[in-house]
């Protein structure tokens, strides 16, 4: 299994990084975890064929995490000429917010019938779902975004990837990431508390409790990039993590 950090930035492109987007390639397909506003640009920059992606899992409904989905859909229709099915997965309210985003960005586009099978699936916290060979379990976290925000636990090819989403520290992260092969954790600040976001000082004391085999910090703001601690793996656009 290969995880590519297509985008590792915060909402505002700190450090010149693209919005959150992770490409996971496994034995029977590929999926995205989040697809922020700049993600299609980042996908093109890495020369990834968007048609490789069969599922997009969205952690929460902020623009830097799902704002690229309208562009992905219209590219699939008009440029990439997609013909294979695509499944979009997100929290309750995803379908409505996606339709609204399509209409704001490209009026009338939500009424265009795609030339491929498109499914939108809405999740409930604590309810496991299966998408092909991928098992997904969402956990409610603490991040105000007008819809339920999730940490995601994904199992595939005998490996577990946990993703915190955007959140301040919550005990649900223990369950979401316990003994994961890879934990991708938002870490906006070094030690400054910002409501609904993670600081390294809040995450660090809990890493032993989580017990993930590998931890990569992402979604870093200005002070986290300046004060990046030694011995901690930091994401960057284009980083590739192999899970064997």
Describe this structure in words.
With 244 residues, the protein is an alpha/beta fold. The protein has one domain: Ribonuclease Z/Hydroxyacylglutathione hydrolase-like (Metallo-beta-lactamase, Chain A), CATH 3.60.15.10. It has helices spanning 39-45, 63-66, 69-78, 94-105, 172-177, 200-203, 207-210, 222-226; strands at 2-7, 21-26, 29-33, 55-57, 86-91, 118-123, 129-131, 134-140, 150-156, 159-163, 182-186, 215-218, 233-234, 240-242. The strands form 2 sheets. It has a 7-stranded mixed sheet. A 7-stranded mixed sheet has the order 7-8-9-10-11-12-13. It is globular, with a radius of gyration of 17 Å.
Approximate strand percentage: 25-35%
Number of strands: 14
Number of helices: 8
Give the total of domains: 1
Q: Would you identify the CATH H-level superfamily? A: Ribonuclease Z/Hydroxyacylglutathione hydrolase-like
Tell me the distance between the termini.
7 Å
Largest sheet: 7 strands, mixed
Q: Just name the CATH architecture.
A: 4-Layer Sandwich
In the sheet with the most strands, the strands line up as 6-5-4-3-2-1-14
Shape: globular
Helix content: 10-25%
Indicate the mean pLDDT.
97
Instruction: Give the CATH level 1 class.
Output: Alpha Beta
Listing every helix as H and every strand as E from the N terminus to the C terminus, the arrangement reads: EEEHEHHEHEEEEEHEHHEHEE
What's the CATH topology name? Metallo-beta-lactamase, Chain A
Q: Uncertain segments of ≥5 residues (pLDDT<50)? A: none
Structural class by secondary-structure content: alpha/beta
